[in-house]
């Protein structure tokens, strides 16, 4: 009983009393550096795939969250969405306020925890920016607070937290996919990675089997989802999935990488079936 009480005391003292937790609850207080957990201690994102491999593959496409730890607009059609840390979409001001952003104090020059009002002000400034285009793509860039009309306050997400949040968002997307695709964990690892990349990139709203949208010309509803891709995924026809996986608004290289992952899954599936057939033949079945 005594040991149980001691353990409860230790747990209580560890809850919301660390410098990081205290600072996160008090806007205006400098935030200590918080190191992200080593990947081997984190819950698995995809079954059978090392976390670092999963994260690095998405970072290769979305960018390093530690190097884009500021609010910016992504390169989506229509001028982009407010984003942070390598592709984490901030759908609303409220979503942004959930993150422990820091802002450079004008008097001390040091970063401190930003208030909700400061986060909202920066969010609205970034959201109002009309991004320039390079060719067909909008430019996603860091907005220097000292330059021109694009200036926004010097507000950032600490690098360690940006990395951790990126990992957690990937884990959340994988969980959402398991809810939509019950056999997701049984798919070959490359197929899981391809599907996760599409879900992370497009979001749950767009990456779905059925997404009814009214046609502006006819006024009739149309399915703008991915029925053919989801049908291929559900029957685990990875070669067909590769053909149905092309997205608009991303680079050709990213589309090729996704298709190649599906094709790799098809090869693994073919090899597994051949091996299983050989085992059955050896047993005389």
**Whole-number mean pLDDT:** 79
How many β-strands, per DSSP? 10
Head-to-tail CA distance between termini: 60 Å
> What is the makeup of the main sheet?
3 strands, antiparallel
In terms of quaternary structure, the protein is single chain
Structural class from helices and strands? mainly alpha
Q: Kindly give the count of domains.
A: 2
Order of helices and strands: HHHEEEHEEHEEEHHEEHHH
Fraction of helical residues: 40-55%
User: What value does the Rg take, in angstroms?
Assistant: 23 Å
**Order of strands in the sheet with the most strands?**
1-2-3
**Shape verdict:** globular
Uncertain regions spanning at least 5 consecutive residues: 1-25, 32-41, 133-146
H/I helix tally: 10
Proportion in β-strands: 5-15%
Short summary of the structure?
The protein has about 280 residues and is mostly helical. It has 10 helices and 10 strands. Strands 1-2-3 form a 3-stranded antiparallel beta sheet. It has a 3-stranded antiparallel beta sheet with strand order 5-4-8, with helices on one face.
Fold and architecture overview:
With 285 residues, this protein is mostly helical. It has 2 domains: 31-64 and 159-285; 70-157, no CATH class. The protein is 47% helix and 9% strand. The protein contains 10 helices and 10 strands. The strands form 4 sheets. A 3-stranded antiparallel β-sheet has the order 1-2-3. β1 and β2 (82-84) form a beta hairpin. α7 (189-206) crosses α10. The longest helix has 31 residues, at 252-282. It is globular, with a radius of gyration of 23 Å.
